[in-house]
Amino acid sequence: MNTFLRMIAMAMRLLLLVALVCATGCRTNSPKAGVNAAPDKHGGHDDILPAIDCPLRRAGVDPKHLRPFAEVEKYIAFLDRSDRDAWQNPDVVVAALALRGHETIFDLGAGSGYFSFRLARAVPQGKVIAADTEPEMIRHIHHKATLEGLSNVKPVIIKADDPQIPSEADLAFVCDVLHHVQAPVAWLKKAVLEMKSGAKFVLIEFKEGQLPEGPPDSVKIPRAKLLELAGQAGLALESEQANLLPYQLFLVFRKGT
């Protein structure tokens, strides 16, 4: 009899666990979702995070395997640090793109959304698709876009070996990303293949030499090599603003017909 009661108790605990998981799993239609929801232990909102968890599951990513957000908070703070503005000149970069306000921009390797949110404000009638391989960055961008009321920021998760640029994109924006890619030739070819004819591809990478900012020279891609890689992928150099940024190249390519 005692064994039977213990089995019932174990079954009830299992059912309770399943109920708790379901209650916090994929609640995408909660009426409380939004900026007024209570902050959760990750610094986000109880009803915002499940809305991201469901797309993660559809993308084949199990949310329970994600690292706690605290582990990437320092990296986000590093990307968004105020002193970066002095040399990254984000507002100058966005202005140099000469956007008309209705474009669809694919921010490839968006990270914390450092450029995504600035780009979104520059295209009020368009949208910015903020793409990254790191689920916690996507959570962060989604949360911040919700808090700031930027409905034209669409965070998406991509694979490391496939940029997955949608054919609707008028411009792909790639800042300080290419030197992280393991197979840049194949990666760029996939990116260009997915782009529509005439779309722009903006590439920002660190210049060679010992600089106060940026990665070591050993991982940088020389300008000549960048042009070679872009050409192999089917991109033609449209313009270059050599003096716009103190430590970085600013190259604008266009996909041919």
Give a short synopsis of this structure.
This protein is α/β, with parallel strands linked by helices and 257 residues long. It contains nine helices and seven strands, in the order αααααβαβαββαβαββ.
Describe the 3D structure:
With 257 residues, the chain is of the alpha/beta class. The chain has 2 domains: 2-66, no CATH class; 76-255, Vaccinia Virus protein VP39 (Rossmann fold, 3-Layer(aba) Sandwich). It contains 9 helices and 7 strands, in the order αααααβαβαββαβαββ. It has helices at residues 2-23, 49-58, 70-79, 85-88, 90-96, 116-122, 135-148, 184-194, 223-233, and strands spanning 104-108, 127-132, 153-157, 171-175, 200-206, 235-240, 248-255. The chain has a 7-stranded mixed β-sheet with strand order 3-2-1-4-5-7-6, with helices on both faces. β4 (171-175), α8 (184-194) and β5 (200-206) form a beta-alpha-beta unit. α8 (184-194) crosses α9. The protein starts with a helix and ends with a strand. The model is unreliable at 7-12 and 14-66 (pLDDT under 50).
Give the CATH topology of the largest domain.
Rossmann fold
Q: Which parts are unreliable, with pLDDT below 50 for 5 consecutive residues or more?
A: 7-12, 14-66
Tell me the span between the first and last alpha carbons: 78 Å
Strand order of the largest sheet: 3-2-1-4-5-7-6
Q: Indicate the radius of gyration in whole angstroms.
A: 22 Å
Q: Count structural domains.
A: 2
Helix content: 25-40%
> Number of helix segments?
9
- Tell me, what's the shape? globular
CATH homologous superfamily placement of the largest domain = Vaccinia Virus protein VP39
CATH class group of the largest domain: Alpha Beta
User: What is the strand content?
Assistant: 15-25%
Number of strands: 7
CATH architecture of the largest domain: 3-Layer(aba) Sandwich
Q: What pattern of helices and strands is seen along the backbone?
A: HHHHHEHEHEEHEHEE
Query: What structural category do the secondary elements indicate?
Result: alpha/beta
Largest sheet: 7 strands, mixed
Arithmetic mean pLDDT: 79
